[in-house]
Amino acid sequence: MPAPTEVVDDVYDITTREEPRDKRYRVFFSTKATPTLVDTGLQDTTEAVLDGIVDVGVEPERVIITHDHGDHVGGFDAVVERYDPETWVPEKTSLETDHTPDHLYGDQIGRFTAVHVPGHTKHNHALIDEDAGVAIMGDTVFGADHRGLPTGYFHHLPAVYSDDPRAAAF
């Protein structure tokens, strides 16, 4: 896997797997104030997540999960076992993990505002740090690289990825 990429000051994209047609799986790691890992990747990409953290050179003190799909929570237990960070999971979300989250969140996590964005899942959240100009979208939208569009474009998730039955009508 490529080395972590600093996307803005002290915020890193850790790509955990790349597939044909420019599809990437990744997590984001902010080293500002409280070092925070957002999502933990697929279970079979855990080593890539852990290696990326080592490459950045800062240990996470907090893990925030945006929603409960496997590509966001698969490495949860491994990260908790390695680093023992404080963990945050959306309210009303149940994880099938060996470790119980420390906190269930609604609106605020440290400097992040957690914005409830249902549609992809009932408990999907985006994380906004307005002062830093950072928005971590989870699966609120997909990046252009997922569909081969030019860099800088985003698109809504196709209905096939949604657990909301109303999405099929769009």
TrEMBL record:
Tree of life domain: Archaea
InterPro entries per the UniProt record, alphabetical: Metallo-B-lactamas, NDM-1-like, RibonucZ/Hydroxyglut_hydro
Protein name: MBL fold metallo-hydrolase
Annotated organism of origin: Halocatena pleomorpha
Pfam families named among the record's database cross-references: Lactamase_B
Residue span, Metallo-beta-lactamase domain: 32-164
Bilayer-crossing regions: none
